[in-house]
Amino acid sequence: MLLTKKSSHAAQAVSASASPFVHSLRRGLSQALPTMDRRSFLRRSGLGVGVGIAASQLTLVKKSNAAEGAKVGIGDSKIEVRRTICSHCSVGCAVDAVVENGVWVRQEPVFDSPINLGAHCAKGAALREHGHGEYRLRYPMKLVNGKYERISWDTALNEITAKMQELRKASGPDSVYFVGSSKHNNEQAYLLRKFVSFWGTNNCDHQARICHSTTVAGVANTWGYGAMTNSYNDMQNSKVALYIGSNAAEAHPVSMLHMLHAKETGCKMIVVDPRFTRTAAKADEYVRIRSGTDIPFLFGLLYHIFKNGWEDKKYIHDRVYGMEKVREDVLAKWTPDKVEEACGVKEAQMLKVAKMLHDNSPGTIVWCMGQTQHTIGNAMVRASCILQLALGNVGKSGGGTNIFRGHDNVQGATDVGPNPDSLPGYYGLAEGSWKHFAAAWGVDFEWIKKQYATPAMMSKNGITVSRWIDGVLENNELIDQDSNLRGVFFWGHAPNSQTRGLEMKRAMDKLDLLVVVDPYPSATAAMAAMPGKAEDLNPNRAVYLLPAATQFETSGSCTASNRSIQWREKVIEPLWESRSDHMIMHQFAEKLGFAAELSKNYKMQKVKGMDEPMVEDILREINKSVWTIGYTGQSPERLKAHMKNMNVFDVKTLKAKGGKDKETGYDFTGDYFGLPWPCFGTPELKHPGSSNLYDTSKHVMDGGGNFRANFGVEKDGVNLLAEDGSHSLGAEITTGYPEFDHVLLKKLGWWDDLSDAEKAKAEGKNWKTDSSGGIIRVAMKHGCHPFGNAKARAVVWNFPDAIPQHREPLYGTKPELVAKYPTHDDKKAFWRLPTLYKSVQEKNVADKAYEKFPLILSSGRLVEYEGGGEETRSNPWLAELQQESFVEINPKTATDRGIRNGERVWLSSPTGARINVQALVTERVAPDTVWMPFHFSGRWQGADLLAYYPKGAAPVVRGEAVNTATTYGYDSVTMMQETKTTICNVERA
Fold first, then answer.
1. pLDDT tens digits, one per residue of 579-605
2. How many CB atoms lie within 10 A of CB 820?
């Protein structure tokens, strides 16, 4: 909350009689104070002593001299309020930015927002600093003789595109890699995937790969969509909540508001984590497990649920495939003794937690990167899904799998952005998908095909961001593309969020082209500039830094974790020489010769005298093409109306209480806030969005649903569709049915419900490729879901382990368990690269790596910082709160090593890395585990990298990155990196 109050009439009278200088100074202080942290406010609260003293204590307020002859203006300011969304985590907190004469002067949390309820966390409260840009990248720069020098935009664009064309001619389009951003809005993420396609490669990716790719794959392959099923708000309806691998109190602080409200009405909270977190401090039951043993824990719970007959038998019969096979596997393998051996939890506590889940219904489960970032992350998330299916908790208010995403638009960037294995909306890379988008983009399919090296490369999954290092360093004969990677774009991505930092430095040095497009130079700039090994440095390498605008310097939509889409208004004009990401894409396309194709469907607006594609038009193109996940009903007009009228939406259900927008007359009746996808059909159809997925108690036109028919109609003679009587409310088909296409519509006699114009477009198409939306409209008219009505899959036959299996990490401390639970076999060509599993694990056991590195190393978030941290550590208000990178170490472990709290230590890992951090001696971690935050960069194995940042653009706080020390290891389905479980040693510095 703001630490200000409305002034009285008396105060206003005094103000009116004050001198212009005092008036201006008071106004300046009133604008500074709301953004001050509580601690500083209390410390500096002696404002009554005198204006001079107060001003002297505001250490972050600098003296500025007025221009000669200038007068202080009173009462002639232009003040506007712009509504935007916090650009940090995925909760989607709304913010009102107060702009005076084009300057962002203060902010307030939106009290009407049904999501953040007028609350902020530390990061959200400090957003205004973006609007001042003290440590921003101000101008285009080029690395020259180890130092960054300012260049013009024209020079940068000309030189970069010339280098791209040179690489394309010599090595093909696949030699250039594009790392996109989960900070891009939906329109920019979508446009980048389109841009990369027109360049002619699938070598693109973004942060979701290294935070929730295993969630997307695992959950989508279980029941249809790989996203959070319910919402933060709906957790207020839960009777029990199991948090596993989620420290929401620090990673998603405002989400805890809803959980704490739930606890007030009796919800039981269980926290499962190797570390006693701030979230665990709020739990009714805390369970400590060994990192990487989520499956033994989850299946250990299922053991007791099955043994006691606590599963929902009717739900399983009607809506779940393969649970009997899971039951057999669990009862045979995960007896209480085996569970305790693997994860360390005793039978009594396992039974207690299982009973809590059974006795308190509905129940929800929350997981984050603690569960996803493993070589078996795909199996872990499916185990969580199976637990909820056994209890009958999916498709219910208060139930579901509430998967908290990390960045403000990582959900949207995953949905419509630069994925290497799909086009926007999770359309695959098959020819039919390409033709669908060629039509939507208004370009010839054959033209797109010619942009690629070969037709085969057009349909081949690209390299993942987690492995771009190997795309550079790997032996060319072992790579499933013609050339190694020679150019890389870091377009809003933190390199210190990726593993194997030492090898990443080598890869950066070997490149021909490295381009950073970011509001901040990021750790990439310093890593590229610092000296490396002489044998690695490419003498022809060119490194450029391009200043991108923040999301507060443009407009557009972003998708919160609960799938609600919110519209950001532009708060201020781009600072310094920064340009919006979509403007930069358009300008690159102009130089590369495909701007006409890229921006064909968009009007242009002038920003600083330059053409910028209209964001609204990009969203309209999304609305006309992304039918698969229902990104089609959320028109710019509907989203903007929601943002202006947040007060009409219920805090628990997100449903509008009625009412119309004063300006447009838009009627909110029935809408869910932010039109959470799927919002099927055209905007005119006015689907309300889907607050809780797969909820059969509601009609499809009220956001109801059922599981998606995405895996066929039968498997080995067993029915995969829902049983008779299992359907969403009001469906005219009262049993399971496949997804809708032109054939099914004709068989049902519903074809004539289409207009003639719709028939012309729907002929030969299914609901995902019918550009008229007619098939979807008619299916929903009859109460049916366009994606069919099937069973969720407890057994996923197309995954490495059809039933989730525990496998020990590649780097572990328990060789005796490796023999019982070995990892996967090595893969020769996986996402274009050889990927090692068993050979690495066996070598570590043979070399007894666990003796030299006897501690498990894990990592996670702090409330003060976010992501790679460059942005938040450049914020003075946040930097003051957390000034050191540190490692948490148990008192026993510290004592054994002669380490005291606050001392400097060296953390070493099998990669050969040694990082210097401060010791935080605490019982939060067990004696066998240490923990580090992953937000730090700017120091490298004891050395400060300040000299290698562009002058004036280094973060305020710099520290060692944990990922300098992390090791090799990737998920067997998605190539997620294994950052939550590796090994290390710690010694006193």
1. 999 999 999 999 999 999 999 999 999
2. 13
